[in-house]
Write a structure and sequence with these properties.
By secondary structure, the chain is mostly loops. It has one domain. Helices cover 0% and strands 9% of the residues. Strands 1-2 form a two-stranded antiparallel sheet. GO terms for molecular function: cellulose binding. This is CBM3 domain-containing protein. InterPro entries: CBM2/CBM3_carb-bd_dom_sf, CBM3, CBM3_sf. One of its GO terms (biological process) is carbohydrate metabolic process.
Length: 78
């Protein structure tokens, strides 16, 4: 994300080496990540582009983008 967009001023990027293998169209991948502030205070998620306050379990989200070799293959950019 070369510049700030409305509703998105930060992002996380994950990449894999060729040795990681590949997924077929019917396979999925779960990535577990945690973020924290230095003082461990809570984040305000309501202003985050990808935040879904109604989700109570894993769910597909078009507000999370996926790129393969720089090409958008899933989701809608902010």
């Amino acid at each position: 994300m070369p510049s700030v967009k409305t509703g998105a001023d930060h992002y996380a990027e994950y990449s894999f080496t060729s040795g990681a293998g590949s997924l077929t169209a019917s396979q999925s991948l779960e990535i577990l990540t945690a973020f924290n502030k230095n003082n461990w205070s809570s984040y305000t998620q309501t202003n985050d582009y990808s935040f879904n306050p109604t989700a109570t379990a894993f769910t597909d989200s078009t507000h999370v983008t996926v790129y393969i070799s720089g090409n958008l293959v899933w989701g809608i950019e902010p």
